[in-house]
Amino acid sequence: xxxxxxxxxGGATHSTLILMDTSGNVITTFKAEGTNHHLxxxxxxxKRIADLVNKxxxxxxxxxxxxxxxxxxxxxxxxxxESNNELVEGLKEKYPNLSPNIAIGSDTEGSVAAxxxxxxxxxxxxxxxxxxLINPDGxxxxxxxxxxxxGDEGSAWDIAHRSIKTCFDAIDNLETPPHPIDAIWKKVQExxxxxxxxxxxxxxxGPFCKAKIxxxxxxxxxxxxxxxxxxxxxxxxxxxxxxxxxxxxxxxxSPELTDxxxxxxxxxxxxxxxxxxxxKEGFVRHIENNTDIDKLLLIRVISPGGLGxxxxxxxxxxxxxxxxxxxNYEILFRYERNRSSCKxxxx
Length: 347
Fold this sequence. Notes:
Strand content: 15-25%
Mean pLDDT: 90
Distance between the termini: 41 Å
Order of helices and strands: EEEHHEHEHEEEHHHHHHHHEHEHEE
Number of helices: 14
Structural class: alpha/beta
Largest sheet: 7 strands, mixed
Strand order of the largest sheet: 8-7-6-9-10-11-12
Low-confidence stretches: none
Helix content: 40-55%
């Protein structure tokens, strides 16, 4: 067995693996396809995990038959203990050379572990969305994470879908949009290579690609950057939903987390956070008008994808490894009621 620890952070769209030694040094990283077993099936999920680990081993010149000391899996879709155990047992049975020590949790767990060994709150706003609070005693509270049919508010999917639906409703004369749709509708036509509404039906109801549709969020962000009022409005709404999800779990946070000098620390993960300047107004408005939260510290996780999953494995398996949490994040926004400041991070 090697003294190398692996960590995989996997979402619906893509996954990232890191290999590190017990001194905390990252040896290599590797990226691959998504690993949400609800979308691709349990067996395909296992295969992708094994392929990812083996490719990283080859890159790091580790023999394929040498198991890792530990492997952490922080994957979207891994919220249920029963299915998590099924995934891990299948991995150990079919791919015994991966590692005898596998720890598993949701994609949110790895993000918390990347910034603290004492719990915290993570808000994921990527292709999908999820918010998870982990208290120092291990108790948890979750809001979201239910996928694009039952949730994903504030995500790239939600922003893309809301933009397209607003255009459809305006063209159908069903709803009057808060601002003109011209710029967004033109961008819809360009991005999806369509002419009219029926052309979109095959994209949504034919061979379905959630990532392709969610990718339109980046185009909406560009329009917001150019000052389009509808694009800005849609991002403000996304900011409001993200704030709602954080305020939904906040009451269950331990005083040990909320009574910090700068308030509850929120790890912000996912590409939507890159458009924080457009999310901010809706976010702050909701916190100010609908909660009694006095302080929040929003941090942007900048560590290599997979590092939090490796840390999570070390925490769960009691493996001692060197860490410097402050290197893993940068401050995005300090919220203090009636006096806030932000550092804008945009792609």
